[in-house]
Amino acid sequence: MLEKIPFKIYKGGVIVIEATIDTISQPLNFILDTGSSGISLDSATCSEFNITTKVTDTTVSGIAGSRKVSYVFDQKIKTGKLISDKMNFYVNDYGILTSAYGEKIDGIIGYSFLNRYIIEINFDSLFIQIYTPGKFNYKEGGSILKPNFSRLVTTKVEIKDKEKTDENLYFDTGAGLCLLLTESFVKEKKFLFSRRKPVTTQVQGLGGKRSMRITVIKRLKIGPYFFRNVPTNLYEDNENVIFSPQIVGLLGNDIMRRFNMVLNYANNEIFIKPNTNYTDGFDYAYTGLALFNHNGKIYVDDIVSNSPAEKAGLKNGDIILGVGVSFSGDIQTYEKLLQKPFEPIKICVSRNEKIFFLTIYPMSIR
Asked: Which of 13, 77, 119, 316 is the most exposed place for a label (fewest CB within 10 A)?
């Protein structure tokens, strides 16, 4: 083993580790992301620490759009005591992720780092162990997946609702959702949503925010493991981010956090073994609002018409002072407290310097 480092879990199972680069001694927060073809730094972090960037013609794409990016070339990144050199960081604006999580996101660690090592992720202990590529003895009781490894990882899963189909998805540990399918795939297959009408929601990703529909599919199978009634985002891929006709969406980390796993790029293998989160319930609550953190205050944004949030009287720009009995000011705590379909939830709101309480009744997408 080369190194063992702790990690934190943000909403949706997103993995965040601390690392330093050779121009900054202060620990930075990086999302560990198999859905990223490189490694990147936040533009605000570069500005804060006066890191020189170089303009390029390179374009990066994500679910909220595409953009040209600058680079910081030939850097070292240090995770624990392990130093990885000759890293080229592209620079992107992750302010929307910082606002969504309530903690600074300084960058994303993807393929450029992950393909150099064997990465063992343990969601029970909240530690990542990093090994030199080579022979690896997987633990008993799990299953080995044989995805397609290039700069991005794709794997085959079974999806069932009205009908059953085997499809290729991106394996995306940086996506804080369960399952995402393209709208074009859904229209072509015509097999989903035998009973449920999707509702509109907001998600955050590369390039900013994006409206999507969300529903539930009956069953998802990964290797030998089944999940039933899985929340599913529907994505209108106008920018051709999911550009291959053979790939119809992505598998996010709100599913994969339920497994301890080993990422073995050199052997084209991912080992998964159910962990203590495996039987956790899914979040079916729907409020029709988004929350974001700005200068330590939690704001309401993107209220959907005729949603529980609108019916409760919430408005864009409201400041949330508390949810239920919590006045912690922690955005992730507030979002967890709103995951209670059909229950009345008190929200303390500040609007135009007046403080009052509203009651929201989240609905269920099931």
From this structure: 316
Q: Mean pLDDT throughout 80-109?
A: 94
Residue 344 binned pLDDT confidence (cut-offs 50, 70, 90): very high
State which H helix or E strand residue 234 sits in: strand 225-235
Q: So what's the pLDDT on residue 62?
A: 59
Beta strand 225-235 pairing with 179-182: parallel
Q: Amino acid letter at 366?
A: R
Cα distance from N-terminal residue to C-terminal residue, the chain: 44
Contact between 302 and 202 (Cβ < 8 Å): yes
Separation between Cα atoms, residue 255 and residue 155, nearest integer Å = 14
Tokens of 354: 């007046």
100's tokens: 């969504």
Question: Which range among 107-116, 121-130, 239-248, 338-347 shows the weakest confidence by mean pLDDT?
Answer: 239-248
Measured on CA atoms in the order 295, 296, 297, 302, is the torsion positive or negative?
positive
Q: Is 119 within 8 Å of 128 (Cβ atoms)?
A: yes
Q: Distances from the Cα of 236 to the Cαs of 67, 113, 301, in angstroms?
A: 18, 30, 21
Token pair listed for 223 = 């290797």
Reported as type and span, the H/E element at residue 299 is strand 297-301
User: How far is it, in rounded angstroms, from Cα 233 to Cα 212?
Assistant: 6
Q: Evaluate if residue 145 carries a pLDDT over 60.
A: yes
Candidates 204, 201, 220, 205; CA nearest to 161 is 220
Strands 39-42 and 107-109: antiparallel
Whole-model pTM?
Answer: 0.92
The string over 128-143, giving b where at least 16 C-beta atoms fall within 10 Å of a residue's C-beta and e elsewhere, is bbbeeeeeeeeeeebe
